[in-house]
Amino acid sequence: MNLASLRIITADIKRLVPFLENATNLKAIWFTDDFAEIRTSSSTLAIGSTKTLSLFGEGVAQPANNKSVIIEFRVENVDDEYERIKDFVNDIVQEPTTMPWGNRSLLFRDPDGNLINFFTPVSPEAIKKFNE
């Protein structure tokens, strides 16, 4: 089994997708006006408008209501990424900090309140983990 993607449901896809494009420095692929994807070499972040929920059934998800998931991107240099995004991200939760498990981490919220973590492995153990 392989994890194919994570999907964010949003009430304002025209606001969220450009924000995520700017934050990740990746271009989204739009499939419809209500669905886009940001692809990396290892995963896909899908973004769907609330209109797409009708295909799954009423009440299956609520936009801007995430209180448990952190969307994580491994980046080349988290400090450089912080400098690049700090002027347009309104909610920096944690400036770059080295965590006990060996990743240097930057935590911020997107306009819907979803937590996003940019991290760079910096300890020998963390670097080894991501190079295996």
Offer a concise description of the structure.
With 132 residues, the protein is of the alpha/beta class. The chain has helices at 13-24, 78-85, 124-131; strands at 5-10, 29-32, 35-39, 44-49, 70-74, 91-98, 103-109, 115-121.
Strand proportion, as a percent range, falls in: 35-45%
Number of E strands: 8
The secondary structure category is alpha/beta
3D shape: globular
Mean pLDDT: 94
Please give the radius of gyration in angstroms.
15 Å
Low-confidence stretches: none
In the sheet with the most strands, the strands line up as 1-4-3-2
What percent of the residues sit in helical stretches (DSSP H or I)? Answer: 10-25%
Output the CATH topology of the largest domain: 2,3-Dihydroxybiphenyl 1,2-Dioxygenase, domain 1
Number of helices: 3
Major beta-sheet overview: 4 strands, mixed
Q: Let me know the CATH homologous superfamily of the largest domain.
A: 2,3-Dihydroxybiphenyl 1,2-Dioxygenase, domain 1
